[in-house]
Write a structure and sequence with these properties.
The strands form three sheets. Strands 4-3-2-5-1-6-7-8 form an eight-stranded mixed beta sheet, sandwiched between helices. Strands 12-13-17-14-15-16 form a six-stranded mixed beta sheet, sandwiched between helices. The chain has helices at 3-12, 23-31, 50-63, 92-111, 119-133, 171-174, 178-186, 203-215, 256-270, 278-287, 311-324, 342-349, 369-377, 389-398, 415-425; strands at 41-45, 68-71, 83-85, 88-89, 138-142, 160-163, 195-197, 220-222, 228-234, 237-242, 245-250, 295-299, 302-305, 329-334, 355-359, 383-386, 404-409. 40% of the residues lie in helices and 18% in strands.
Length: 427
Amino acid sequence: MNYNDAVAYIHSASKFGSKLGLANITKLLELLGNPQKELKFIHVAGTNGKGSTSCFIANILYSSGYKTGLFISPYVESFGERMQVNFKNIDDDSLIQNVEMVKETIDVMLEQGFNHPTEFEIDTAIAMLYFQQSKCDVVVLEVGLGGRLDSTNVIESSLSTVICTIEKDHMSILGDTLEKIAYEKAGIIKKGCPVVVYGSNDACTYEVIKTQCKIMSAPYQIVDFNQISDIRYYDYSYTFNFESFKDLKINMFGDHQIKNACTAIKAVQAATSLEISEASIREGLKNTKWPGRLEILSRNPLVICDGAHNPEGIRSLKNTVVKYFPDKKKIFVMAVMKNKEYEKMIEDIFPIADVAIAVRPSYDRALELDILKETIQKYCKNTKAFDKIEDGLDYAVENAVENSVICTFGSLYYIADVKNYIRKTGL
């Protein structure tokens, strides 16, 4: 087996769909020797912001001298991004070795009458093996979907549990109310393990989380964003105060990243067995970069890519564009998966577009191009559609003037195409 064979094997499990539940991952890890039981975790759930918050947390841990594992999904450009140690992707040899081990174990599972694990369950098993082999001090573990029945919830305890934003997404799976979605996310709360919750959620979600914390005897705190003050913006970065911290700096763009950074601070502080200095917090926040989250890809013309793929993400993106680029010509490029609330997203952001461009990635789940174009045209008459992402980006660049911003969004799944285009054209 080579690297391509290993990745192909993992992706081949996509035919088994996405099945929530812990029976399969529990059995798979049991047969692999339960590597997760030798690890310590900070577990992060949420509708939006969990990836950025996880990255802030991991950077703080790394700056504190801890060997830090990071498990994320989805990846942007390379499969190895999903499982990192000290911000280095899993190496090819380790991936191949662990895929072979997992594959053999799955054969045993099938002989014993268990279902074939899903792609995400296989990812989780490989990651647990790799983090254990790497002797990680702490693993920052991002939930894939929901929480309660997500395969990452196979862990038995966490140094701290983090719940970021709670919004309506994946409603066919997680429920059609905020309370139901909060219940699923609160399912990662472990007995006696401290819980940190993002401070701008709907009040009804806090009641659900508080109830679960009481059941699990878990200490609970909501991050108080009123403690954020003196925000200063300069060149896509921010300096701000939070609680007793003065002049913290982040190099992530978007006001919401300040809140994610503060949530990360409280998450590491809640993990009281860790030794985290103020200097490490400062260094970790400053060093955090995260691909595809309001990422500046080019400055001339200004090109920003963002993975916003649900109404809350689009709202944050729109607020950022309106605030920081009020007078710029706005050229929006969108692709989206058909299972998303694309009509709400389009209705919110495209009225402010000067030029709208619909594209379709080569994914079966992507929304059909004609439907996307017709929906966008309700809100922006100047709309074009392109079968090839590259052609859509060519059109965007051709229509950019000196005072323009090109913004691509709607899905994380085509960010790699956008980045490849920027590299290829030398923008």
